[in-house]
Amino acid sequence: MLRDLIRHVATETGITQARAREALGIIMNAADRQGSPFADALFKRLPGARTLSAKIGSDIGAPTGTIARLIEQTPGGRRAVACGMIERLQGCDLSHKEIGLMLPAIAGFAEEAYAITGFGHLGDLLGSDGNAALSPSAIAAVA
Question: What are the C-alpha distances in Å from 103 to residues 9, 17, 98?
Fold first, then answer.
């Protein structure tokens, strides 16, 4: 199924599957570091997603310690994670348009394949207020 998501994102954004895979890993790693309920739901339903997130996180030197993760969930930490994510996506040679198409492509796949809803923009992904609004089915998938 992870390959299906990669293909879907590549098709929806017009980028290669290799770039889509790397970009997905960057986005999922950022969401995971923020404690996103969407990331938890997707990791539970999509085999290989957590592994891709961890591998890309390791490749980019993302913090993994408990204290670092807590710091990344403060307002300043959230801003730093979001900015770092955008910088890394730009480092993959994604244009602003391609980056803008990534989140709706991921959300569309998650909704169609897993009925995970309530996600479609950066605030939902990173849980800007710490309480991202997910549908009851997505919350049940996390529990």
Answer: 9, 16, 10
Q: How far is it, in rounded angstroms, from Cα 42 to Cα 28?
A: 9
pLDDT value at residue 141? 43
The one-letter amino acid code at 30 reads: A
Contact yes or no for 25/53 (Cβ under 8 A)? yes
Task: Name the CA radius of gyration of the chain, rounded.
Answer: 14
Per-residue pLDDT at 135 exceeds 80: no
Flag whether the pTM goes above 0.70. yes
Tell me the three state secondary structure of residue 46.
coil
Cα 42 to Cα 32: distance, rounded to the nearest angstrom: 10
Name residues whose C-beta falls within 8 Å of residue 6's C-beta, 6 or more positions apart in sequence. Answer: 17, 20, 21, 24
How big is the CA angle at 35 (ends 88 and 39), to the nearest 5 degrees?
75
What percent of the chain is predicted at pLDDT more than 90? 50
User: What residues have CB less than 8 Å from 84, skipping those under 6 apart?
Assistant: 30
